[in-house]
Amino acid sequence: MLPDYRGRSSLVVSTLLYRTFLKAGRRAGVRHVVTMLDRRAHRNLTLVGAPFVPIADSEPFEYLGSPSTRARYVPFGDLEPSIGLQGSRLRRFGATFAGEIRARGLRRLVTRRVAAGVSTRIASGKGIDEHIDLPGPERRRGVGRRSAGPDRRRVRGASPVGVERRRAIVAAYPGGADRRRSGQTDRRATVRLRRRGLFRR
């Protein structure tokens, strides 16, 4: 979360996070979403329009201090259209929608209108996509953190001394390079290489 958005209302922050999740997941080719949600998070996401279903028909259970945690699953591709549909349903007076709004009277109407706006912005990105800055592929894959250039690469035997040493070992006895690596070094060849300064323990 960038510093410019810290301290804002939780509604703005959650809308940005949900939309970022959709954009990042789509870019990464995510196909399945598995999550553990406490009661409040599950209620909010259901009202937004996320079509989560229980994993193996499981009931709420206690987990990490939360007395009512739900294990849920949804195909990633179902999230965006379902959230968009929820937004349009919430905007239509009298239409049924997923989730529940506990408030009554005028407060219920205001909550419904706010929830409709949140669902619509999450699904469409209207007014919020310009505030989302996803890392590029080179950062997500770890490319660029270390230079892959020849100045940073250490290739065994690439230096002139290394090349000369390998040639001397091969010339000293048949199969020298392979036997040298396996530790089966001919004693006399080793003495000759040591005298030439090409063999060190």
Model description:
There is one protein chain. The protein is of the alpha+beta class. It folds into 2 domains: 3-133, no CATH class; 160-195, no CATH class. 49% of the residues lie in helices and 10% in strands. Strands 1, 2, 3 and 4 form a 4-stranded antiparallel sheet that branches. Strand 3 and strand 4 form a beta hairpin. The longest helix has 20 residues, at 105-124.
What are the SSEs and their pairings?
Elements lengths: L9 H19 L3 E6 L1 H10 L4 E2 L6 E3 L2 E10 H16 L13 H20 L12 H4 L19 H13 L3 H7 L4 H9 L6
Antiparallel strand pairs: 1-4, 2-4, 3-4
Helix pairs in contact: 1-4, 3-4, 6-8
The geometry reads as elongated
Helix content: 40-55%
The domain count comes to 2
SSE order, as H and E? HEHEEEHHHHHH
Q: How far is the first residue's CA from the last residue's CA?
A: 53 Å
Indicate the low-confidence ranges by residue numbers: 142-158
| Rounded mean pLDDT score | 78
Question: Radius of gyration, Cα only, in angstroms?
Answer: 31 Å
The largest pleated sheet is described as:
4 strands, antiparallel
Quote the beta fraction: 5-15%
Q: How many helix segments?
A: 8
Structural class: alpha+beta
The total strand number stands at 4
Keywords:
201 residues; alpha+beta; 2 domains; 4-stranded antiparallel β-sheet
